Amino acid sequence: MKILTIMGTPHKGNTRAIVDLFLKEFENDNNEFDEIVLPIDFNKPCMGCANCILNGEDKCPHYNDINPMVEKIEKADLIILGTPVFVGSCTGSLKLFLDHLAYMWLVHRPKESMFNKVGLIVTSAGGSGVKQTTKLLKNNLFYWGVPQIFNYGVTTMKMGGNYSEYKDKDKIIKQVKKKAKEVSKALEKRKVGFKTKFFFNIFKMTQKNGWNKTDVDYWKSKEWLNGKRPF
Ligand SMILES: Cc1cc2nc3c(=O)[nH]c(=O)nc-3n(C[C@H](O)[C@H](O)[C@H](O)COP(=O)(O)O)c2cc1C
Fold first, then answer.
1. Is the pLDDT of residue 207 over 90?
2. For an engineered disulfide with 125, which of 49, 110, 129, 217 has Cβ 3.0 to 4.6 Å away?
């Protein structure tokens, strides 16, 4: 199985340490690991031209930089998004990465491979913000088409250092082990739930009277408007 970690920070602090705890749980002979570290591997802000949505993702001015990242995402069975909470949200580095993937939301041109993946969101905050950051990232994975999404967030009440120095570190390790088991189970038995099917059908109806030719042509080419489904 292929596990791709997308880190919203290059900082080797709380988030990195907790992501590493998860990766340790997933270590076995069958698993391969890959990583995108932001902003090192991608650092361009979306210019707002909407070319990706309207004219095709290859018309994005940053296509040559973002497309190798999309290829990594497509290959992965499990996508881990890791980010600290910065001013109540994910890091800016992660947000600008996600902005470049708007074209592959369910409402536009979802990639077939997404419906067979599992997602895991790992967040850490000093005080508050885990809930809203998790919600934002869950939303992104869901609208990419990822049907099963897990999350784990830690509120450290401390800035700097990493979780291993905290008094509740044993609790964190135990919780991570439990969550990693749930993720592994989902990877073994992948399924597409009602919510994904429901939204796919809603967007199928909108594509039947679609306003964006690039999207409509895509749905037609996949035969999704004729009853075929990507799951
Ligand atoms: C620029 C910046 C903004 C932050 N904003 C928040 C915030 O809005 N809410 C919060 O609870 N913690 C905030 N923090 C604290 C971090 O989320 C927290 O320390 C986190 O565990 C850091 O993760 P890291 O060690 O992986 O970098 C902020 C830290 C930084 C550097």
1. yes
2. 129
Q: Which domain holds residue 69?
A: 2-191
Burial of 159: CB neighbours in 10 Å, binned 0-12, 13-18, 19+: exposed
Q: Is 140 in the pocket of ligand 1 (CB under 6 A)?
A: no
Residues 202, 160 contacting (CB under 8 angstroms) = no
Q: Which atom of ligand 1 is nearest to the CA of 159?
A: 19
19 belongs to a structural domain:
yes
216 domain residue, yes or no: no
How many domains are contained in the chain? 1
Find out whether 87 and 191 touch, Cβ atoms under 8 Å.
Answer: no
- Residue closest to 147 by CA, chosen among 230, 215, 203: 230
Residue nearest ligand 1's atom 1 by CA = 86
Whether residue 164 is predicted with pLDDT greater than 90 in this model: the reply is no
CA–CA gap between residue 114 and residue 91 (Å, rounded)? 23
With beta carbons less than 8 A apart as the criterion, state whether 78 and 3 touch: yes
pTM of this structure = 0.97
Pocket flag, ligand 1, residue 126 (CB < 6 Å)? yes
Cis geometry, peptide bond prior to residue 39 (ω within 30 degrees of 0): yes
Q: Which CATH number does the domain housing residue 94 bear?
A: 3.40.50.360
Tallying the residues shown for the chain, one arrives at: 231
